[in-house]
Write a structure and sequence with these properties.
five-stranded antiparallel β-sheet, extended, 946 residues
């Protein structure tokens, strides 16, 4: 058959093209007398022998060449697993495998021994699965029948054996057990103690004992729950030793097999002889745990119901079919004024209002007969004699079998509602007129309120609880040049009132959230409106309804632009007045200085003036110039534009020296306490300005203490400048110098204003308000800050923070430097850059007197051209800072980049460039300067080049 089969219709192809491994396996299975089938390839193409064709029954010959999943569709899952395992190189074996096959057109239960092995191809890889099929159906059926017969025979023999052995003794006992419960039969021989004999299987199961367990009386006692043991044992002994013939008991046991606590009910008969002595106890043990639990739950449920019902403020009851009640709550008793027993049998018709009696009786009878929920409304007389309208609602009750057993009801006092209904009925008669009157009044009020809003000069509106604009008055709309329709229904913070101002949207949105919590918000705002920039005193307030809940939000804004402008004009006026005082004082001081200079020069023109007096007049002019220079530096410090001369100095040493100057300034009634917490506190700053600042702070402390108290000066290192009202926190290394007093303190609202120029709390004539402004200007220019803390009536602390500097390796002898004689500049060439003709001429002559060869340029551009022509023509450039076009600092910077070997010395009396950039690294000599200072500076710069 295999040779005749058309294998070309399968995935195997023509027989001649089969691989040798497939041919070899096929020849082998064809010679076997055992049913064998080969499942080749992924699809499991079936090739089998004659023995397998007999096994296949009616499926043969269609199975030949078919896919195993198609050939045996009823066991597809089974064969899928076979193919999966076999093609993975593994084997399977089944013994007496039960399958349902359709070999003859109908389902057939068969059993088989199946052995599956992989078949390898020429490459040594699994290409198919060979199955040896041995049907064992007849053997399995026969063995099962034998086992069934054997089991049946064994059971019959056991029954017969038990029956024969216990037939006589158990006939009467069995009848009694069946009559009592037929659950957990128990038989105790009482003639010689407590001989339990063999326990019934049901008894063993109830007590949690293993089958065939020998159970003694002592075992039973040990199983009893500790809380029930004494009571149950005593009751048992009393029953046995007494004269009773019936024994009934309930107790708990602890089952040994699972540790569960179970309730046991025992019902038994005690047989006695003619003398009343116990012979046997025959009965049954029943597990009643579920029943007791149900009873307990029922009791708890009833207790909860009674507790809930009695706590209810309305009458509640449970009625029976005879018209009496099975339960009534406390409110029910209080309404009737009766005790519990009397209330259960009370006839409600006795307290019904005569006008309602007939109607309620009919409605009640009809409602009860319907066996559906029904409602009654009537007047009843309460215990205090008052008639109350009551609305009762009744629901039918049913027992577990579905039988109607009565009603459960609840009544509500609706007297107030009835009275309101009557009043409402009366009000309805005049309601229309009242509505008209009220509507007219509301319209009038609304018109008045709208007129108030529309004529108000304030920006006013109304928002809903989502922040959308409901209303805006004319003033508010005019401010944004819009109509009401342009903003109605839109979020308030997205409207043109705030859209043009950065950050305003967030402020208004956050404020709206605060108002929704019932709070009001207020703030001053500068808004960029279509009509221009305007300042507003802005506020939002909640609008509450009659229940106190927020119903809307009322935004208001008062235009305070003119007021702010007036205040600013007033401040400017005050500043101008202070500046007038300042300039008047400066003019007075300068006139005094000029008087000295003028007088001295007049005397110097006299020919008869001796040398001693001539020297005094010259010295007077020199001293006066120094005083004038100091005065101009103070003015620049006030303007925060002074060109600082920073240098590294020991703050502790400097403060100790300044403290000696402060002592006579503050007076003898003020103590000065100095603490240097950290050694080697070196800072980088202008020493002269530091001295002025520290003295200024000490004088302010003196004035705050009214010439009596304690000034504490403390020096220490700090890792940061704390945040304050005038600056944010700065990290870094700083030296902190604090001046603390025990004065009156500064109010918190003034702490940020005290550093403003011209701000002062002193009396007229005792201060211009420039000291602290000068001090904070010095600190900020030096890279530091001044921080103030104050407590009213306790004092204030001003702390100067200066950048910490490295400890210098060695310090120059300042005294030697200051006394250094004027050195000759002979042999050195200097390019003088000065735009002022007089100053340039004087500077050139002065340098020539010092021995320098000079050449002058009028501006920076000309100077750069001269240097470019011959960069070796000059040994140094001496330049003014303030010049038209390129300034001196810019010139020096270019020279340093192009000609790094050519030194530059700058000179200026004032420069905003120097004030803002104090550390360009160039030598600086401030005007007015002395010949000695100029000579030293130039010589030092040239020497450093060499």
């Amino acid at each position: 058959m295999i040779r005749r089969f058309d294998w070309a219709t399968t995935s195997l192809g023509l027989l001649a093209t089969w691989p040798q491994s497939l041919k070899t396996v096929t020849e082998t299975l064809l010679r076997s007398p055992v049913p064998i089938v080969l499942l080749w390839g992924e699809d499991g193409i079936m090739i089998y022998n004659d023995a397998y064709s007999a096994f296949a029954g009616g499926r043969h010959p269609k199975l030949l060449g078919s896919k195993v999943r198609d050939g045996w569709p009823e066991v597809t899952d089974f064969n899928d697993n076979v193919m999966k395992v076999g093609l993975s190189g593994r084997t399977l074996a089944y013994k007496d495998q039960e399958l349902t096959l359709y070999r003859h057109g109908q389902p057939e239960q068969v059993w088989m021994n199946l052995d599956y092995s992989p078949v390898l191809n020429e490459a040594g890889e699994p290409a198919g699965v060979i199955a040896v099929v041995v049907e064992t159906t007849q053997r399995v059926i026969a063995e099962r029948r034998v086992r069934e017969k054997r089991d049946e025979l064994r059971r019959v023999n056991e029954v017969l054996f038990e029956s024969q052995r216990a037939l006589k003794d158990r006939e009467s006992d069995l009848a009694r057990v069946q009559q009592i419960a037929r659950i957990g039969g128990v038989n105790v021989d009482l003639r010689h103690g407590f001989d339990n004999g063999r326990r019934a299987p049901e008894y063993l199961e109830v007590h949690g004992l293993a089958p065939n367990t020998t159970d003694t009386h002592e075992d039973w006692v040990r199983r009893l729950h500790p809380d029930d043991r004494d009571r149950a044992l005593q009751h048992f002994l009393e029953a046995v030793n007494g004269s009773a013939t019936h024994y009934s008991s309930e107790y708990r046991i602890v089952r040994p097999n699972d540790g569960q606590i179970r309730w046991i009910a025992c019902e038994a008969e005690i047989e006695r002889n003619e003398k009343g002595q116990p012979l046997r106890l025959v009965g049954a043990h029943m597990d009643i745990t579920d029943r007791n639990l149900a009873k307990e739950l029922l009791r708890e449920s009833e207790a909860r119901f009674r507790l809930i019902a009695n706590s209810a403020p309305v009458p509640m009851w449970v009625s029976k079919l005879d018209g009496t009640r099975g339960f009534a709550n406390q409110a029910y008793l209080e309404f009737l004024g009766l005790g519990y027993g009397e209330a259960l049998v009370f006839d409600w018709r006795k307290v019904l209002h005569p006008d309602d009696l007939s109607r309620i009786v009919k409605e009640s009878v009809a409602g009860e007969a319907s066996l559906k929920p029904f409602v009654l409304e009537a007047r009843y007389r309460r215990a205090d004699g008052a008639w109350r309208w009551m609305r009762s609602e009744s629901q039918p009750r049913w027992d577990p079998a579905g039988k109607h057993i009565g009603f459960i009801g609840v009544a509500h006092d609706i007297t107030t509602a009835k009275e309101a209904e009557n009043e409402l009925r009366g009000l309805n008669e005049t309601l229309e007129q009242r509505i008209k009157e009220r509507t007219s009044q509301l319209e009038s009020n609304e018109a008045q309120l709208r007129a108030m809003f529309e004529t108000s000069n304030q920006y006013q509106g109304l928002l809903d609880l989502q922040g959308n604009v409901i209303y805006a008055n004319k003033t508010a709309l005019a401010g944004i040049r819009a109509a009401a329709a342009d903003v109605a229904g839109k979020p308030y913070w997205d409207s043109p009132w705030f859209s043009g101002t950065s950050g305003a949207r967030e402020v208004v949105s956050d404020g709206f959230a605060t108002v929704l919590r019932g709070e009001s918000v207020r703030a001053e705002m500068l808004l960029h409106l279509p009509i221009g920039d305007r300042y507003f005193d802005f506020a939002m307030r909640p609008v509450f309804d009659q229940h106190g809940a927020v119903a809307a939000v009322l935004p208001e804004a008062v235009d305070i632009t003119e007021r702010r402008q007036a205040e600013e004009a007033l401040r400017q006026s005050q500043k101008m007045e202070a500046i007038g005082q300042l300039t008047g004082g400066v003019a007075h001081d300068f006139n005094n200085l000029l008087t000295i200079i003028r007088s001295a020069t007049d005397f110097l023109r006299r020919r008869d003036l001796d040398e001693g007096r001539r020297r005094r007049y010259i010295d007077a002019i020199s001293d006066t110039v120094d005083r004038a220079s100091k005065l101009t530096r103070q003015l620049l410090a006030f303007a925060r534009r002074q060109p600082l001369t920073p240098q590294v100095f020991d703050v502790g040493v400097q403060v100790e020296a300044i403290a000696q100057l402060i002592r006579p300034l503050v007076g003898g009634r003020i103590q000065i306490e100095l603490t240097i917490r950290d050694p080697e506190c070196f800072a980088m700053a202008d020493v002269a300005q530091f001295e002025t600042t520290l003295i200024n702070l000490a004088v302010n402390s003196r004035d705050a203490m009214q010439d009596e108290g304690l000034i504490s000066i403390n020096v220490e290192k700090a890792e940061a400048i704390p945040a304050s009202g005038t600056s944010r926190k700065q990290s870094g290394k700083f030296i902190a110098i604090s001046v603390k007093d025990t004065g009156t303190g500064i109010p918190p609202e003034r702490l940020t204003a005290i550093f403003e120029p011209f701000y002062t709390t002193k009396e007229v004539g005792k201060g211009t308000g420039l000291g602290l402004s000068q001090a904070v200007g010095f600190a900020k220019q030096s890279g530091g800050e001044i921080v103030v803390t104050s407590v009213l009536n306790e004092g204030s602390t001003f702390t100067i923070y200066l950048p910490q500097a490295e400890v210098p390796s060695g310090q120059a002898d300042a005294a030697a430097a200051s006394s250094e004689a004027t050195t000759s500049g002979r042999g050195h060439r200097i390019l003088v850059v000065e735009d002022n003709e007089d100053v340039g001429k004087f500077s050139t002559e002065l340098l020539q007197d010092l021995g320098y060869a000079t050449r002058r340029a009028d501006n920076a551009k000309q100077a750069l051209a001269l240097i470019a022509a011959d960069e070796l023509a000059f040994d140094l450039v001496f330049s003014d800072v303030i010049m038209p076009g390129m300034n001196g600092v810019e010139l020096a910077t270019i020279i340093r980049e192009r000609y790094p070997g050519l030194p530059v010395v700058l000179t200026s009396g004032y420069s905003s460039v120097l004030a803002e950039n104090a550390h360009h690294g160039f030598e600086l000599i401030q005007k007015p300067y002395s010949v000695e200072a100029l000579s030293r500076t130039l010589r030092r710069a040239i020497s450093e080049r060499l």
